Amino acid sequence: MHCYELIFKYGISANTIHRMKKGEAITTKTLDVLCYILDCSVSDVIEHDKTK
After folding, report:
1. How far apart are CA 20 and CA 14, in angstroms?
2. Hey, which bits of 1-52 come out as E strands?
3. Distance (Å, rounded) from C-alpha 52 to C-alpha 11?
4. What is the tally of structural domains in the chain?
5. Which domain covers residue 21, as residue numbers?
6. DSSP letter, residue 47
């Protein structure tokens, strides 16, 4: 899937995509949309890092 699809088909902002690429925080709404797109659960997409 290309960034273009995320932006224009699913309405995810370019700024949000930039933050995801850099490993920065995203909203739970964005996470929900990504899980819908990928047909997966939250635990498939993220992991908790106890060292941070």
Report:
1. 10
2. none
3. 30
4. 1
5. 3-43
6. -
- CA angle (8, 42, 24) in 5-degree steps: 65
Sequence-distant (≥ 6) Cβ neighbours of residue 47 within 8 angstroms: none
pTM: 0.74
31 residue type, one letter: L
Q: Can you tell me which residue has the tokens 């106890």? A: 50
Any domain includes 16:
yes
Block residue for tokens 């964005």: 30
Q: Is residue 50 part of a domain?
A: no
CB count within 10 Å of CB 1 equals 9
Specify if 51 maps to a domain: no
Question: Could you report the per-residue pLDDT of 1-52, keeping only the tens digit for each?
Answer: 788 899 999 899 999 999 999 989 999 999 999 999 999 999 998 888 888 6
Dist CA 16 CA 4 (whole Å)? 13
